TrEMBL record:
Domain of life: Bacteria
Domain Transcription regulator AsnC/Lrp ligand binding: 6-76
InterPro entries (UniProt xref): Dimeric_a/b-barrel (IPR011008), Tscrpt_reg_AsnC/Lrp_C (IPR019887)
Origin species: Amycolatopsis pretoriensis
UniProt-recorded name of the protein: AsnC family protein
SUPFAM superfamilies recorded: Dimeric alpha+beta barrel
Pfam families: AsnC_trans_reg
Length: 93
């Protein structure tokens, strides 16, 4: 599974509608509105890189109000829960 983080610039008045439209697209996990350099951040999960080409410019980029996207592909995931599970292997309660 390929995970990508998509930074999305949106016209200010279109942010709520664009966020919901993007969240409704298959392959999109979550959409966050945020402060800072970008208006929305979306997480995307697909099974092949070719799907990113269809999903991001083909679907997300065509949502009304979307001005630009920048995509970052994740190589590895780290979380507190993963670390705690790794240290719990073989431990007895």
């Amino acid at each position: 599974m390929i995970t990508a983080i998509v930074l999305i610039q949106v016209e200010a008045e279109a942010i709520p509608d664009a966020a919901q439209a993007i969240a409704d697209i298959d392959g999109v996990g979550e959409v966050y509105s945020c402060a800072g350099d970008v208006d929305l951040i979306a997480t995307v999960k697909v099974s092949a890189h070719e799907e990113l080409a269809d999903l991001i410019p083909g679907r997300i980029g065509k949502v009304p109000g979307v001005l630009d996207t920048v995509t970052h592909i994740a190589f590895r995931s780290y979380s507190r829960a993963d670390t705690e599970q790794a240290f719990a292997i073989g431990a007895e309660d």
